[in-house]
Amino acid sequence: MEFRPLRAFVEVVRQGGFSQAAKTVFATQSTVSKAVKHLEEEIGFPLLDRIGHRSVLTAAGEVVYRRGVKLLADRDDLLAELDEIRGLRRGVLRLGLPPVGSSTLFAPLFALYRQRYPGIEVRLVEHGSDQLEDTLRAGEIDFAGALLPMSEEFDRQPVKQEPLVALLPSGHALATRDAVRLAELKDTPFIIFESGFSLHRIILDASRWAGFEPDVVARSSQMDFMVELVAAGLGVAFLPRMIGEQRARPTVRQVLLDEPGTEWSMVMAWRRHAYLSQAARAWLDLVREVHGADTHPKPDG
Fold first, then answer.
1. Which domain holds residue 45?
2. CATH number at residue 68
3. Same domain for 150 and 177?
4. Mean pLDDT of successive 10-residue segments in the chain (301 residues)?
5. CA distance 74 to 185
């Protein structure tokens, strides 16, 4: 059923005749009459009983009028909501962020986004980068904060690159060094992130490339807890330099990790060729505004 004939019919009933309805819908009286006739033919029932210069609703006409008023109101509401989404007054952004680095890199962006688009609902998911990739792949979120390397099925916007530092107890034999290789730490117990975190994979893979399997004494998702374990002399942990500097302890020394392939490269990733809503595009524009021009292909559409 088309909305234009339905609106003409509803206005004929509301205005009490074809002439007044024509003025309301900005059409000729003949056009309104043809629209109502077209609607009657489509439904298969007469809607108006024309008695002289008056038109009275038939039983079918009463049903169509009652339902038609609601349909037209719902259509107007739908168009209004779409206009709000188009104007970023409403919408949803589904965002996946990792625990490591989010408070520094993304909290200011999040606050600025909310300031600019207060009507957008932000649904936040927090997991390790590797787990967020799976969530993004499944289409459950629009964007994921993730670490390189990652699958080429995703497009990404670079956000931040940092070297890793080894967090050592102040009494460790290597704690006074400017830099350290992983092989030099093979006899030191490792305190690493849980599986699902990219840093878990990065450290274990790099250790194996260096020719040893580390002695992992603790796995955790809590950075502060890991730092306290280092301070207690339990072993060595690894963090991006900027994150390590924020968690300085008198009994913990930070030594640059001089190991190829262990750079912490944070990106904002999305599914290649995926549809990005207006709310999602606004988030991506903000990330690019703050962290520089995109050097990767843009999504289609």
1. 3-83
2. 1.10.10.10
3. no
4. 86 87 85 90 88 82 90 79 77 90 88 92 88 88 89 92 96 96 97 91 94 96 94 96 90 95 92 88 93 49 35
5. 67
Considering the domain architecture, whether residues 150 and 217 belong to the same structural domain is answered as: no
The H-assigned helical ranges of the chain are 3-15, 18-24, 29-43, 59-86, 102-105, 107-116, 129-137, 198-209, 223-231, 241-245, 278-291
Q: Do 282 and 117 form a contact (C-beta atoms < 8 A)?
A: yes
| Tokens linked to 141 | 């979120």
Q: Are 141 and 111 in contact (CB under 8 A)?
A: no
Peptide bond into 98 cis (omega under 30): no
208 and 131 in a common domain: no
Identify the CATH number of the domain in which residue 280 sits. Answer: 3.40.190.10
* Burial of 73: CB neighbours in 10 Å, binned 0-12, 13-18, 19+: exposed
Match 């059923």 to its residue by tokens.
1
Residue written as tokens 């997991």? 127
Whole-angstrom distance, CA of residue 214 vs CA of residue 190: 6
- What strands lie across the sheet with 164-169, from one edge to the other? 179-180, 252-257, 164-169, 236-240, 190-193, 216-220
Domain-located, residue 301: no
**Which amino acid makes up residue 107?**
A
Per DSSP, what are the bridge partners of residue 155? 270
How far apart, in whole angstroms, are the C-alpha atoms of residue 216 and residue 29?
84
Cα–Cα distances (Å) from 74 to 13, 65, 78, 128, 170, in that order, read 19, 14, 6, 42, 68
